[in-house]
Amino acid sequence: MPIIKDQQISDNTWSFVADDAPLTDGNITVTLNRWQTEKQALLQRSGSIGIRLSPADSVEAVSADLASFKLIELYFSVFSDGRSFSQARLLRARYGYQGEIRAVGHYMTDQVFYLKRVGVDAFELNNPKAIEHAQAALNDFSVRYQASSL
Length: 150
What we know:
The protein is α/β, with parallel strands linked by helices. The two termini are about 25 Å apart.
């Protein structure tokens, strides 16, 4: 499924591996729980590693390991839960994370502009038909009153 990365539509070269699924080669993301319990095995496999943070996960819990991650996925369990906005801002502003931060899960295309402002630079959408709408929404506003993370 295509994603939006750096405001361009591109191929997704990553896959999420659930806690109960076997590890695979290639670029994968795992949950915080799996990272904490299988860190050494994850670092020894071939391919890049990323982490998927749920809204309840603490960014501070991975702050010492940020250099290990090429990608951090912020999982939106429901579009009305704004904690992932705060996680993105903390990753960029407090912890200086320079890698890719990707929004995944249940968020609205109308939120992508605001997600970009707090540091999200990639978007995986549940509905591939909405990708062009989301890409256009990244430029919804030309005047901004507050500073952003990017």
